[in-house]
UniProtKB/TrEMBL annotation:
It catalyses: 2-formamido-N(1)-(5-O-phospho-beta-D-ribosyl)acetamidine + ATP = 5-amino-1-(5-phospho-beta-D-ribosyl)imidazole + ADP + phosphate + H(+). InterPro entries: PurM-like_C_dom (IPR010918), PurM-like_C_sf (IPR036676), PurM-like_N (IPR016188), PurM-like_N_sf (IPR036921), PurM_cligase (IPR004733). One of its GO terms (biological process) is adenine biosynthetic process. Belongs to the AIR synthase family. The lineage of its organism: Bacteria, Bacillati, Actinomycetota, Actinomycetes, Micrococcales. It comes from Xylanimonas ulmi. Coiled coil: none annotated. It is found in: Cytoplasm. It comes from the Bacteria. This is Phosphoribosylformylglycinamidine cyclo-ligase. Residues 177-344 form the PurM-like C-terminal domain. Its EC number is 6.3.3.1.
Length: 374
């Protein structure tokens, strides 16, 4: 009896499908390339020419990496994969612009049980489109086929970005002062955090993703797959004249509201000895958050410690710069409002009422007051 040897294809890996996926996505990837990107799609390494940044006196490279989390389960359930790239770019690139860094280039990684070229191409096209919005080049990536580890229709995505910022222009806690004002920028919805809670709520309620929800004006699945708002170009536009602004009019810090919610992320950009007071009543939470709250009877503490509740980014601004920042954001089409203020931490401030020490950061604190409007 003769037997044939096992092949890579028999083991579940189709290299030809991977090549087809590259062919389908490469035009979208190339559209993110400017003259600083060297080489083309498919090289072992992406190359980026930094010679245009010779005018920097003390350039710092900024980097971040992240994924999309269990929101990919919604994309898989709906078989819609062309928007998840915005969630990836939002989670990765908007983490470096908060320090004032200009994003230069990004790479991505997709692991899947089976390479379906059209699906992979949809994912990467979404990443490329979001990179265009953020002003970054998508210079490389990897698609890995993991049969036996992931089911054929399962996948996960991750990415990393590199940016650049002048050392003396880095934003953060050391610039924040008592008297600064918090300006909130609206999220587009859930963004890409807290989906383990959201999916558990939906399962508990027994709702299907194709259920039309009047309060949302669309199906539940469409709402849950709403792409993350990418703030990078808006943030950089706000910072164009930051170094020439008067001391009381400059932007001192930003915080990206992701996992952990508003208070936990805001505390990360405050120095020790200062407390930010956030007024929950200053905005109307989008309907999806009230829906999650009601369907799962989720306690307020869990909601605000998990979801963004309608605030995706916060600027910490000198009091003389508030009107200008709000006007600029309105011109950019980003809904924004005054969220609260920063003050010195008082001796009578009860620690039990403050959020501090999150993500291992020994910094300032946040006090939440008022009631949410769901």
């Amino acid at each position: 009896m003769t037997t044939e040897g096992l092949t890579y294809a028999a083991a579940g890996v189709d290299t030809e499908a991977g090549d087809k996926a590259v062919e389908l996505m490469k035009d979208a990837v190339r559209r993110t390339h400017g003259p600083a990107v060297l080489g083309g799609v498919g090289g072992f390494a992406g190359l980026y020419d930094l010679s245009a940044f010779k005018e920097y006196r003390a350039p710092l490279l900024a980097t971040s990496t992240d994924g999309v989390g269990t929101k990919v389960a919604i994309a898989q359930a709906l078989d819609k994969h062309d928007t998840i790239g915005f969630d990836l770019v939002g989670m990765v690139i908007d983490d470096i612009v908060v320090v004032g860094a200009k994003p230069l280039f990004m790479t991505d990684y997709i692991a899947t049980g089976k390479v379906v070229p059209e699906r992979v191409a949809d994912i990467v096209r979404g990443i490329a489109q979001a990179c265009e919005v953020a002003g970054a080049a998508l210079v490389g990536g990897e698609t890995a086929e993991h049969p036996g580890l992931l089911a054929p229709d399962e996948y996960d995505v991750a990415g990393a970005v590199t940016g650049i910022v002048e050392a003396d222009r880095v934003l953060g806690p050391d610039r924040v002062r008592a008297g600064d004002v918090l300006i909130a920028m609206a999220s587009s919805g859930l963004h890409s955090n807290g989906y383990s809670l959201v999916r558990a709520v939906v399962k508990h309620a027994g709702w299907s993703l194709d259920r039309h929800v009047d309060d949302l004006g669309r199906t539940l699945g469409e709402e849950l797959l709403e792409p993350t708002r990418v703030y990078a170009s808006d943030i950089l536009a706000l910072l164009e004249h930051n170094e020439t602004a008067a001391a009381g009019a400059a932007i001192h810090a930003f915080t990206h509201v992701t996992g952990g919610g508003l208070a936990a992320n805001l505390a990360r950009v405050l120095p020790t000895g200062l407390v930010a007071t956030v007024d929950r009543s200053t905005w109307q939470a989008p309907p999806v958050f009230g829906l999650v709250r009601a369907l799962g009877q989720v306690p307020t503490a869990d909601l605000e410690g998990t979801l963004n509740l309608g605030v995706g980014m916060v600027a910490v601004v000198g009091p003389d710069g508030v009107d200008a920042v709000l006007a600029r954001l309105a011109a950019l089409g980003v809904p924004a409002w005054e969220l609260g203020t920063v003050a010195e931490l008082g001796a009578d401030d009860a620690a039990a009422n403050l959020v501090a020490g999150t993500k291992g950061v020994d910094g300032g604190a946040v006090r939440l007051v008022g009631d949410y409007r769901f």
